[in-house]
Structure formats: C-alpha cells, structure tokens
Amino acid sequence: MQNKNYYNVIVVGGGISGSALVFTLAKYTNIKNIALFEKYDTIASLNSNAKGNSQTLHCGDIETNYTLEKAIKTNKTATMVENYGKLYGYENKYMFKIPKMALGVGKEEVKFIKKRYKKFKKAFPYMEYWDKEKLAQIEPALLKGRDKNEEIAAMGTTKRWSAIDFGEIAKSFVKNAQKENDNLDIYLGKEVEHIKKLGDKFELMVAGEHYYADYVVVNAGAHSLLLAHQMGHGEDYSCLPVGGSFYYSKIDSLKSKVYTIQNPKLPFAAIHGDPDIVHSNTIRFGPTAIVLPNLERYHGSHFLDFLETLAPSKEVMEVFYDLMHDDDIREYAIKNFLYEVPGIRGKLFAKEVQKIVPSIGEDDIEFAEGIGGLRPQVIDKKAKKLFLGEAKIATGEGIVFNMTPSPGATSCLGNAYKDTQLICEFLGEKFKKKKFNRELVEPKEYLNKETS
Length: 452
Fold this sequence. Notes:
- It is a single chain.
- This protein is of the alpha+beta class.
- The chain has a single domain, classed as FAD/NAD(P)-binding domain (3-Layer(bba) Sandwich).
- Helices cover 32% and strands 23% of the residues.
- The chain is built from twelve helices and 22 strands.
- The strands form four sheets. Strands 1, 2, 8, 9, 10, 11, 21 and 22 form an eight-stranded mixed sheet that branches. An eight-stranded mixed sheet has the order 5-6-4-14-15-16-13-18. A four-stranded antiparallel sheet has the order 17-12-19-20.
- A hairpin with a 7-residue loop joins strand 15 and strand 16.
- Helix 1 (16-28) packs across helix 11 (412-427), helix 2 crosses helix 11 (412-427) and helix 6 (222-230) crosses helix 7.
- It is globular and about 75 Å long.
C-alpha cells in the first residue's frame, strides 16, 4: 500500500506499555514503519505518570496477594525494567534503591510473614526477615507510639531498585526508540476514534484523517476495551474502572516502602506508605479504591463510553451482587467511599495509616488533590467473576487489545516481548530475541554483586 499514512505497525496509547512496545519493536526487530498515537500532548500523562501510580517496581517479593508462581513470573518482568535502566544509566535518575518491606502487625500477621519468608526465600535470596529490634533500626517510625507488647515483623530488602518514575521511563523508551528507527513517527495530541478492518489492513480514524496499518496494538487503559467492543471483540469482558487516591503526610515519617498484608478477598486493597520520589520530603499513603463511572481519572470523558465498556448484563449484575453480598467487601467499599468525602476523610483514613505509623494523627495527613490513577479491572462474564490483573484480547487477525492494571507498569517490557512475538509471527518479521534476552533478561547483578 503506497500511502504516507500507512505503517506496518501502529501502537495506540503512549503510556508505559505502549512506549515499551515501540522501544522493543524499534530496537529488537527489523520492522521499519512504526507509529505511536497518544491522545494527549505528552507521553505518559495518565496512569504512567508519577502522580498516577505507587512509583513501585512490583517484583512479587513484598506483594502478599501474589502466589509464589506469580511472584517469580512478575520478578522476571520487573528485572527487565531494572536491566533497561542499567543499560541506559538511569540509576538514581529514574529508578532508586529505597528499602521496602511487607509488614505484619499482630500475632497472626507476624506468623504469616514468617511462613511466607520461609517459602519465598529460595526464589528471592536477597530478602531478609526483620524482627521488631531490626525494624527499630531500619524504620523507627514503625515503632514510635506503638504498644510495646504488639508484635510486628517484616520481610524486606535494601538491595533492589524498588522505586521507579514510570512516566520518565516511558518518555525514555520513546526517545531511545527514535534513535533506533528513523521511520518511527510519534503523534501526540492525536486520539484514535475508531478502528475498522479493511481486507488484510486496518483503518484508523484520527481527527478526520485516515491511517492504515498491517498490525495494530491498543494499549489505552480502559479505552482498549471500548475500542475492542466497537469492533466486536472482547464481548465476554466488562470493565470496572477503579480509581485510587492518596494522602500526603505533613511529617517526614518513613524512609522505606512499607506494604501491609492483603486481605485474600480484597487482593488490591491494603494500603502502603512510600517516600514520594518526585516530591522531596513527602510521604504518600494509599491508595484508596472507589468505582468511578469514568474511563480516566481527573479527565472528563463520556459517560456513554463507561457504559459501553461496562456492558451491563445479567452476568455483570450477578458479579456486583456477589461482591456486595460479602460483608468484608461491602464494608471496604463503604469505607473507601468515605475516604473521598471532605470533612470526615482525614480522620477516618488516619486510622488506616496508624497501622503503619502509629504516631500519625489526623492533622499529620492531607488528601492529595489530583494524585492517583484508575485501574481498568476486568469482569469475565463467562466466569462471572472479577478478573484481577492484566487482560489481553489477541484476535489472531492482526490486532491486540491490552488492559494493564497493576502490575502493568512493572510488566511493560514483558508484555512488549509477548506482543512483539505476535507481531513478528503475523508479519513474517524477525524478532532479535537473543539480543533482547542478553540486554534485558539475562543480567543478574542483583543476585550476585549487589547481594554479596
């Protein structure tokens, strides 16, 4: 096809996932004509921006909702991001070594931490078990004001690059991709409104102009499912947009990332405390979680788009009923709604924070206006359950739709690897897997030099 608006591959969405894919295609394949479309004027302006996520590289070592199998898998993709940062010299620029831990409070939680540490130690040999005395040295704020008889313990590390500015990493992906491929076009402020299949090609409508591609990958958050539904794909999926907010601490209370133990019924709900890597001397606590009738946080969008992705049905209503029929989940939903209500939210949320820092009071925290993101949690209509984690609609027809809530940023290069494989197989192009593995998968410094 001879057309100035024709590409071999078009990627829709300039967040961390879309930019990682563009980088991987540019550096590790021979595909020449590639385009990235981003609806806003900058790369990574939404969930990938530092203000829209927890700034944490989720390795599976302190995320207590992960099974050992999932933790090992997630660690592999997290290591790719670490190795990318080292490859380009982004240590202490976009990624930082901040101590991190999973904290257990009370007899049962301490028992849980001990058991988990023993089970995970072989897969994560750099992790350490920290009793109360050790925690008093590493993170004294955890002990200040706490009942001296209350048991606490943690499994943690000071060895990993645990804090990441995913927004800056996303921008670096695009910058480095442009160095690798002169035929890479980046379109900012260009929203893809519709996609349709024309024979063996795809036509994308962008601001009244037509663009064409052999292959399309949509990495557009909740809008991925909207575009999929418009094309008749992913109709067994529904999207439940969950917004998260944070609170700032007015006192410099933590030096570490402190995660609490997840409730098995609410595996994305436990709050954590983190030193903010883009706002000095600021600690963030959160996130809250509230269902929002919107596909983006802090940006206006059409309510009809929300309904399109929710796709109300008998199966969806059954999922909602089952969720709200559970006492723990219903109580959690009510509490998190109240955490958003001015006048009462500070006092209520301070009680949550006190599990981590007992000495913090209502006057020591404030609601962080405009801080937080939105997770497109997927409902599987066939299974009649909320699907926690990433979802991929691979049609086999030359178009893929990705929804990547947490740990989507951590898994950006792992997901890019999968999509690059699909693209190269479909187009008959070569994927330089050995080079990718040598640069981003094989280096193991964190298991030898840094942990010796």
